[in-house]
Design brief:
InterPro entries: VanA_C_cat. It comes from bioreactor metagenome. This is Vanillate O-demethylase oxygenase-like C-terminal catalytic domain-containing protein. The protein is α+β, with helices and mostly antiparallel strands. It has two helices and two strands, in the order ββαα. Helices cover about 50% and strands about 15% of the residues. A two-stranded antiparallel sheet has the order 1-2. The longest helix has 28 residues.
């Protein structure tokens, strides 16, 4: 069973996330489909529980060079910040 979540920044204050639920625990296909349906429902329950916490948080200032020590796995964050920095320079 795998749960994959993609976070996609929309703007400075909003992020969309996509959840994919994969399962191959059973040899019978309909059991895997049933497990995926249950997993999808539970992910929605968890998402609704987390929504209140996430909505009350204020975003921190984000910049390309802000003293963070980012790792290789943070390359999407770096790419987004570079694009955002370029866009902000073009506006000025």
């Amino acid at each position: 069973m795998n749960v994959v979540i993609f976070f996609a920044p929309i703007d400075d204050e909003h992020t969309m996330f996509y959840i994919r639920f994969y399962t191959d625990m059973f040899k019978l296909r309909f059991m895997n489909q049933l497990m995926a349906a249950v997993g999808k429902r539970m992910n929605k329950v968890i998402e609704r529980q987390d929504k209140g916490v996430v909505e009350t948080q204020r975003p921190k200032v984000s910049a390309l060079f802000c003293g963070e020590h980012l790792l290789k796995g943070d390359s999407p964050v770096i790419t987004y910040r570079k694009m955002r920095d370029d866009f902000q320079k073009k506006e000025d």
